[in-house]
Amino acid sequence: MADADTQTPSGRDYRDTVFLPETPFPMRGGLPKKEPEILAQWGDLYGTLRALRQSQKAPLYVLHDGPPYANGDIHIGHALNKTLKDFVVRSRFLLGYDVDYVPGWDCHGLPIEWKIEEQFRAKGRRKDEVSKEEFRTACREYAGKYIDLQRDQFLRLGITGDFANRYATMDFTSEAAIVAEFHKFKNSGQLYRGSKPVMWSPVERTALADAEVEYHDHVSPTIWVKFPVVGATDSHPDDLLTFRAATPSIVIWTTTPWTIPANRAISYGPEINYGLYEVTALEEGLDYEPWAKPGDRFILADKLAEEVFKAAKIAAWTRVYDIDPSGLECAHPLAALDSGYGFSVPLLAGDHVTDDAGTGFVHTAPGHGADDFNVWLAHGHREVPDTVDPDGAYYEHVPLFAGLKVLETEGKKTGKFGPANGAVMDKLIEAGNLLARGRMEHSYPHSWRSKAPIIFRNTPQWFIRMDEELEDGATLRDRALNAIDATAFHPAAGKNRIRSMVEGRPDWLISRQRAWGTPLAMFVDKQTGQPLHDPEVDARIVKAVAEGGADVWFSAPDADFLGAHDPERFEKVTDILDVWFDSGSTHAFTLDPRTAASGYTGDRPSHWPADLYLEG
Predict the structure, then answer these.
(1) d(Cα 63, Cα 71) in Å, to the nearest integer?
(2) 229, 328 Cβ separation under 8 angstroms
(3) What are 325-357's pLDDT values in tens digits?
(4) Tell me: the pLDDT tens digits for 380-416?
(5) Can you tell me the mean pLDDT for 131-152?
(6) pLDDT of residue 10
(7) Could you give the dihedral angle defined by the CA atoms of residues 24, 27, 29 and 34, in that order, rounded to the nearest 10 degrees?
(8) Contact indicator for 174, 182 with CB cutoff of 8 Å
(9) In a 3-state reduction of DSSP, which class is residue 530?
(10) Cα separation, 219 vs 240, whole angstroms
(11) Rounded Cα gap, residues 35 and 190, in angstroms
(12) Domain assignment of residue 242, yes or no
């Protein structure tokens, strides 16, 4: 044990014996309190820097803000996007530029509309019980609340920009500019109304464009269905009478049983080898009775026959002879149950048919698939049946299945299969025309907003032609590709990605059957079906929207816009524009009005195109 005289005196303070520098920094950072004080000290940093650079007649640098969506607090994606833009703004100021950066917000579209629908449902009111004016007002207030919230949060991050003059797609002048941009397409001849199958969300009750769809794994029922052959030309087998008497069936395979009521044809591949097969034996020891029986005759692609027989539990068969499907006609598989299906089902040659999977034949419902629609029209048919309504339920005129839903659109089962698939399979069994069934997991299109499956549904929609020649002989696709090639991308892979998308993109579907958005503000001649082209009408529409917002399109009498035109002759279009049209038009109300070319004489000019777009 140490001697007591050598121990250190207890409680001695050594601080006076150590030399340390003094600093005004507090012991604790206290950032939640300190950062707002620092931001307050900066004041209007952006305005100060712009005034300095403009007094020096510095060159202008324009960063155009792709708008975030005004429907919630900012998240890490917003923080990354806006801080990257802040790096650009501050660095360009330091490099001697006068930087034009106006933050903005995207305000229209489904996410906000859903929130407002939820609010009304919580009050016991359905959307169709609320006037469009009241509904749109609620959407506008909701978006306005989050613009203010996100602005304050961006400022809290220290983002430098012209927040005092921010833009929003729902500002009256913005909506007017979007309408004016839409009128350019209307008046150029690029706009048309087409009735064709489009991707449709029953949950959201609207059409969707390619960019609004994502693919997820999905389990679908699969069925093999018999279409009895009822007619054949003399180009078929030598023993034509025997062929007809044997009543063979063409077999199709599909993952959408609910589309069978919409069937109007069967497509085959002209280059595929087909044969007539006769069943001689079924698998034994099964705990159920197969729907096939010995003596049945089926027409199948040779490459796929064995796979079909395996699914149908057929153990043995005989190939009778080659078959050329051209000229054959079938009965609808539900014809025996209801005269509404008493029409004949022709065989149509289609290049889209392969023998990679299925049966070598494609069940063709022209109202529910792009290939189906195209091959139907290519063979001279014009009438496309309407089978499913906007809620994803069969129309009342559909025999056997009126009112049944393809997908559930409300409650806990929203997005799940409704009773339609099961009901169709039950009726096919009753008619004796279901050969086999199963289940399949595959990639299936879903709405990126609701995450619910979509369907293809024939409905009149408005499209912008991508390949219509314009005054200079170029098409919209040409112009877009040329603009992409003239733009520097960082990283370069971004150019390849967007270029490939534009190269293969179909005509742009721009109409939506919703309430909250900028309308396709135009009139259609009921006699010709064509949009009205009248500069004075267009000018009145744009002026009214600039003064009263897009709501005026829905509330004002048609005569206010049409002038000398007879309102009885014209249909007012009440669809709204694809929200991507809004964000794609932001330059028209943020850059264009402040360029020298526009006659702008204010202290904050801009130029078009912008020097940089920085987006995800």
Answers:
(1) 24
(2) yes
(3) 888 888 999 988 888 888 888 888 888 888 788
(4) 776 778 888 888 888 889 888 888 888 877 777 777 8
(5) 94
(6) 64
(7) -50
(8) no
(9) coil
(10) 42
(11) 52
(12) yes
- The percentage of the chain sitting over the pLDDT mark of 70, rounded to a whole number, equals 96
pLDDT at 118 over 80: yes
Q: What would the mean pLDDT of 5-29 be, rounded to a whole number? A: 73
Within 10 A of 31 (CB to CB), how many other CB atoms are there? Answer: 9
CA dist 151 to 160, 162, 324, Å?
Answer: 11, 11, 68
What's the pLDDT score for residue 38?
86
What is the pLDDT, as a whole number, of residue 1?
A: 46
Q: CA dihedral defined by 122, 128, 134, 136, rounded to 10 degrees?
A: 100
- Count of structural domains, the chain: 1
Burial-class residue 153 by CB neighbours within 10 Å (0-12, 13-18, 19+): middle
Residue 167, pLDDT score: 96
Q: What whole-number distance in Å separates Cα of residue 272 and Cα of residue 291?
A: 27
| In a domain? residue 383 | yes
- Residue 236: per-residue pLDDT: 57
pLDDT recorded at residue 464: 92
Read off the tokens for 413: 């089962």
Distance CA 169, CA 450 (A): 23
Q: For residue 539, what pLDDT is reported?
A: 96
Nearest Cα to Cα of residue 267 among 281, 254, 258: 254
3-class DSSP assignment, residue 363 = strand
CA distance 473 to 467: 10
The number of helix segments (H) and strand segments (E) in the chain equals 17, 23
CB 553 within 8 A of CB 214: no
Residues 334, 227 contacting (CB under 8 angstroms): no
Give, rounded to a whole angstrom, the gap between the first and last alpha carbons of the chain: 71
The rounded distance, in Å, linking the Cα atoms of 132 and 217 is 37
**20 has a pLDDT exceeding 80:** no
Distance, CA of 136 to CA of 401 (rounded, Å)? 36
CATH number at residue 306: 3.90.740.10
| Nearest alpha carbon to residue 364 among 355, 373, 356 | 373
β pairing state of 60-64 and 98-102:
parallel
Q: Is residue 329 part of a domain?
A: yes
Domain that holds residue 406: 214-447
Q: Model-level pTM?
A: 0.74
* Positive/negative CA dihedral, 85, 89, 94, 96: positive
Domain contains 226: yes
User: How far is it, in rounded angstroms, from Cα 502 to Cα 249?
Assistant: 43
Contact 261, 300 (CB under 8 A): no
Q: If you average pLDDT over residues 126-139, what whole number do you get?
A: 87
- Cα separation, 153 vs 74, in Å, equals 7
**Alpha-carbon dihedral sign for residues 346, 352, 357, 360:** positive
Q: Peptide bond preceding 531: is omega within 30 degrees of 0, i.e. cis? A: no
